[in-house]
């Protein structure tokens, strides 16, 4: 497994290269942004550990340029610990964000998790017909109109967006959204669907939530709702 570390702090960079090499990885260390981006695009690395504050190109610029050309796991490792920085890094396409000072053991565990998972990442933004869902900002709009949802309604919509076109049973929905086993005497799913439809579908021509007879519900821009 080959890892690229882009880190300008000499002590941190050397520590990372030594520790990751001893953990069984082949490690290349680059100490500035421009060379780091060139190296990342020129070689088939399995994962990149990326600092934000770098000479030349910063980590944000590297991430943006990298995602336009390649899809591989990236962990930001940085002293920038504001929530807005974390959100920005994840919005740019990073898979993880670890703040300095950091635990080397935690870093290795996160690297192993990402390498097992591969490059398949869950989308942060969904567009279904005229519906726009921004998961990170928890913002939902249709035709440019903001739609306010409760936490459970948002979780339900997020599930629908991830499973577009699938017939989802009430049991599955209850398990995923409420973390509960579905009881046939409980109508919590149907009530939540009714409330979500009132906000998401009723004011608009295109209906997105569809009842699948004898099964449950499906979500998408086509299909017959009942």
Strand and helix layout:
Blueprint: E1 2-6, H1 10-22, E2 26-30, H2 33-42, E3 47-50, H3 59-67, E4 74-78, H4 83-91, E5 96-99, H5 104-117, E6 125-128, E7 131-134, E8 139-142, E9 145-146, H6 151-162, E10 168-169, H7 170-178, H8 188-200, E11 209-212, E12 216-219
Parallel strand pairs: 1-2, 1-3, 3-4, 4-5
Antiparallel strand pairs: 6-7, 7-8, 8-9, 10-12, 11-12
Can you describe this structure?
The strands form three sheets. This protein has a five-stranded parallel sheet with strand order 2-1-3-4-5, with helices on both faces. It contains eight helices and twelve strands. It has two domains: 2-117, Rossmann fold; 125-219, Winged helix-like DNA-binding domain superfamily/Winged helix DNA-binding domain (Arc Repressor Mutant, subunit A, Orthogonal Bundle), CATH 1.10.10. The termini are far apart. The mean pLDDT is 88. It is α/β, with parallel strands linked by helices and 226 residues long. Helix 2 (33-42) runs parallel beside helix 3 (59-67), helix 6 crosses helix 7 (170-178) and helix 6 (151-162) packs across helix 8. The protein has helices spanning 10-22, 33-42, 59-67, 83-91, 104-117, 151-162, 170-178, 188-200, and strands spanning 2-6, 26-30, 47-50, 74-78, 96-99, 125-128, 131-134, 139-142, 145-146, 168-169, 209-212, 216-219.
């Amino acid at each position: 497994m080959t890892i690229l570390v882009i880190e300008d702090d000499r002590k941190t960079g050397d520590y990372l290269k030594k520790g990751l090499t001893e953990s069984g990885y082949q490690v290349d260390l680059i100490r500035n942004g421009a060379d780091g981006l060139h190296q990342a695009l020129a070689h088939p690395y399995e994962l990149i550990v990326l600092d934000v504050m770098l000479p030349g190109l910063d980590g944000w610029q590297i991430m943006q340029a990298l995602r336009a050309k390649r899809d591989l796991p990236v962990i930001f490792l940085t002293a920038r610990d504001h929530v807005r920085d974390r959100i920005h890094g994840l919005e740019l396409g990073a898979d993880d964000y670890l703040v300095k000072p950091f635990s080397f053991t935690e870093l290795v565990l996160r690297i192993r998790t990402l390498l097992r998972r591969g490059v398949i990442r869950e989308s942060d933004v969904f567009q279904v017909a005229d519906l726009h869902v921004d998961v990170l900002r928890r913002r939902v709009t249709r035709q440019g109109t903001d739609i306010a949802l409760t936490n459970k309604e948002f979780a339900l919509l997020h599930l629908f967006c991830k499973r577009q076109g699938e017939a989802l049973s009430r049991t599955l929905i209850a398990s995923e959204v409420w973390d509960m086993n579905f009881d046939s005497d409980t109508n919590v799913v149907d009530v939540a669907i009714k409330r979500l439809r009132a906000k998401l579908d009723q004011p608009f021509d295109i209906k997105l939530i569809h009842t699948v007879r004898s099964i449950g519900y499906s979500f998408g821009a086509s299909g017959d709702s009942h």
